[in-house]
Structures are given as C-alpha cells and as structure tokens.
Amino acid sequence: xxxxxxxxxxxxVVVSAYGDAETAEDVVLAGAMPVFADIDPxxxxxxxxxxxxxxxxxTAAVIVEHRFGNQADVRRLRDVGERHGLLVLERNESEGVTxxxxxxxxxxxxxxxxxxxxxxxxGGADHSYQQYVVRVPGNGRPDRDAFARAVxxxxxxxxxxxxxxVHRLPQFRRDVCLxxxxxxxxxxxxxxxxxxxxxxxxxxxxxxxxxxxGLLQPAF
Length: 220
Prior knowledge:
By secondary structure, this protein is an alpha/beta fold. Helices cover 32% and strands 14% of the residues. It is built from seven helices and six strands; from the N terminus they run βαβαβαβαβααβα. It has helices at 22-29, 48-54, 74-84, 101-114, 144-153, 179-187, 199-210, and strands at 12-16, 33-37, 59-65, 87-91, 132-135, 188-191. A four-stranded parallel beta sheet has the order 2-1-3-4, with helices on both faces. Strand 3 (59-65), helix 3 (74-84) and strand 4 form a beta-alpha-beta unit. The N and C termini lie far apart (38 Å).
C-alpha cells in the first residue's frame, strides 16, 4: 500500500512501537523511515495527539493498527491526517475475529466482573477480545513477570502480549519518549478467554489471579 501511494525514500511513516516489528519492517522495505508515536493507555492503539506531536515536513503517512481486538480512534486519526495532508492506512491484526465472538465477549465480561488486584480492560461494544489483556502494576513498580509465574504455577496459561517494544529492538532503536508504550510493555499480561473455555476454566483463572490480589495495588 505504501509503494502504491508513492511513499518511499525520504518519507516518514508514523507507526506504533507497541506490537511486533512487521509494520516497521514494511515501512523500511518501502524505502521510508518508521517514526514511532505513543499509544493510548486504554486501547493500546496509536494516540491521535501523540501522532500529531511527531509529524514533520517529511511525514507522508500513518499506519493505524487495531490491538487485541480494541479499535483505534480512526476518526480522530483521520482528522490528524487531514490537517497535515497525510495518508492514513488501517491494518488489522488478523482474520477470523468473528469466530466465537459472543462467547469471548461473555467470558471477558465474566473475568472483568470477578478479577481483583489487576486492571481489567475497559472493553466497549466494539472490543472483540482477540486477547484479554490486563495490567499488573505491582506495589509501585512493575510486578508482572512474578505474577505471571505464580499464575502459571496454578495451572493457568498466560503470556506477555508485547515483550519488547519495537523502538527497543536493535534494528529500530530510537531515542524517543514513549511513556505509555514503555509502561504497557512492562505491565500487560494476556489471560485466556477462548470461546472453547468452560465456566470451570474461567473460575480457575479468577481463583489463580485473585489468590495473588493482596500483593498488588492497581496504579492509575
């Protein structure tokens, strides 16, 4: 899409650092330079104000990615694009997001109503819960990894959704200020919410997490 739009050498393309490196790599393959903007802490998608802050005379486009089933604020991002004459491209995470959607949403609602000691996702009518991502802020410092080990020890699978932000990777290392991206990378943990899970499976997730809740104090 970038090449078809005539974007290449000398151009900058705004992308998120909170995700995998594929989008930044595609920008490089097109001959352009990826520029990282910070995310919204609730949706984990590009924050429109942060995008506006990094726009320069060389900026040609913004690539918008929806994250974990959360929808980016495309309307405001397109407003930024119109103000600065930028192409705004959308990139979805994966296909097949409608499979078991109602059950995933029901499972997410069950977890959100019962989990304590972690920050549950804000949700919303458009959230498809491709991943159910909570925050584990700890007692004034990130305690996510210890929490994850303890949850796994109780028989519940969990995983870190973004282990290393793209701007920390050697090939893309940038001296940029992305506080929300850094914080999300340190605090987020994905819990299972598959459509195939039973009520007992969900109860096991709640029990494993809440057993550790007294060790945690939610930030924000």
